[in-house]
Amino acid sequence: MTDQPTARIAMVTLDVAEVKPSADFWSALLGWEVAASTDDYAMLTGPDGSPALGLGRTDDLRPPSWPDDGRKQFHLDLAVDDVEAMARRAVELGATLADPQPGETWVVVIDPAGHPFCLTDAANWG
């Protein structure tokens, strides 16, 4: 262990075209509270100690592509108890299933703002 300072992730922020629909989607999917919201920004808070999720309005948003077209991007991996049930729930909330699907142990979903995210089996995350 070193005496160097370290940091922790306090929040991950996604750029979105419209804040309210994205906040509503992620709040319902994660079961997290919308702690603050304006036309330009929302913050969702989850269980104690977990990073918050921010949603910031961005003019002329160009969502990431799926499959990746070579532009650098990141995505969220969500550990869930039932991948298929959560995929259905995400679609009910306005998401779409990505095409093509890359594997058998996770499902890629596209949120209403165009961000891909993965649903994975929580049992694999210990």
Automatic annotation (TrEMBL):
Gene3D superfamilies assigned to the protein according to its UniProt record, in alphabetical order: 2,3-Dihydroxybiphenyl 1,2-Dioxygenase, domain 1 (3.10.180.10)
Q: Which domain of life is it from?
A: Bacteria
What SUPFAM superfamilies has UniProt attached to this entry?
Glyoxalase/Bleomycin resistance protein/Dihydroxybiphenyl dioxygenase
| Span of domain VOC | 8-126
Query: Record's Pfam families?
Result: Glyoxalase_6 (PF18029)
Q: What is this protein called?
A: VOC family protein
